[in-house]
């Protein structure tokens, strides 16, 4: 498996990970997978570690010896799995990247839809890096954050980077910087390819822009975002990485 970018949202090569990221033992591994299920954290599954063959899923159940992942609506990926030998899963609960590998798995078709069933992985990794996993937006993307201005107005701000948990927004000098902790409700992210992603945003930090003209860079986190919208954000971030040539 090729070497990882230091801030990639894709799988890291296991051999390159420090030992302190490694978690072993059935009890510990099962507890982490159950936490992913309880928090409805999205998990990106990669067939044979190929970045082009992936699906965004969730842990349905982590039992004593097995774990199930939702494949409903993922029929093309389920077909790819029929030829795969292993699957790598990557999730982002908070700022920690969780990665594991599944083997001896099977696609199971139940009344509610298809699922991926596999033995609990023997090992998983939890990877913590400062300022990791953010993808800068190229100027050609022209993505913006549309914020509501009561009672009926809207204003557009440029997005400078995006992650599965939040974004950075550029405020022009004419706009007063918000206080950390401020909630911006009823916003949306608009992209050059026509995607519209509704979101509420929580202001985490505000920094003066290096250009020194009075502009500010505002770091925001997604606030109480529905799972289906978060799935769209994650897919968009993956698409951005591909366009930026960050394949491994």
What descriptors fit this protein?
six-stranded antiparallel barrel, mainly beta, Pnp Oxidase, Chain A, single chain, 2 domains, 44% strand, 248 residues, 3 helices, nine-stranded antiparallel sheet, Thrombin, subunit H
| Binned strand content | 35-45%
Radius of gyration: 19 Å
Order of helices and strands: EHEEEHEEEEEEEEEEEEH
Helix content: 10-25%
CATH fold annotation of the largest domain: Pnp Oxidase, Chain A
Lateral arrangement of strands in the main beta sheet: 1-9-6-5-2-3-4-8-7
Any guess at the CATH architecture of the largest domain? Roll
In DSSP terms (H or I, runs of 4 or more residues), the helix count works out at 3
Number of domains: 2
End-to-end span in angstroms?
A: 8 Å
Q: Pairing-aware structural class of the strands and helices?
A: mainly beta
Q: Give the C-level CATH assignment of the largest domain.
A: Mainly Beta
- Beta strands, count: 16
* Average pLDDT level: 86
Going by CATH, the homologous superfamily of the largest domain would be Electron Transport, Fmn-binding Protein, Chain A
Give the uncertain stretches in residue-range form: 1-6
The description of the largest β-sheet is:
9 strands, antiparallel
What is the global morphology?
A: elongated
Would you kindly provide a written description of the structure presented here, covering whatever features stand out?
The chain is mainly beta and 248 residues long. The chain folds into 2 domains: 14-128, Roll (Pnp Oxidase, Chain A); 135-243, Thrombin, subunit H. Helix content is 15%, strand content 44%. The protein is built from 3 helices and 16 strands. It is elongated.
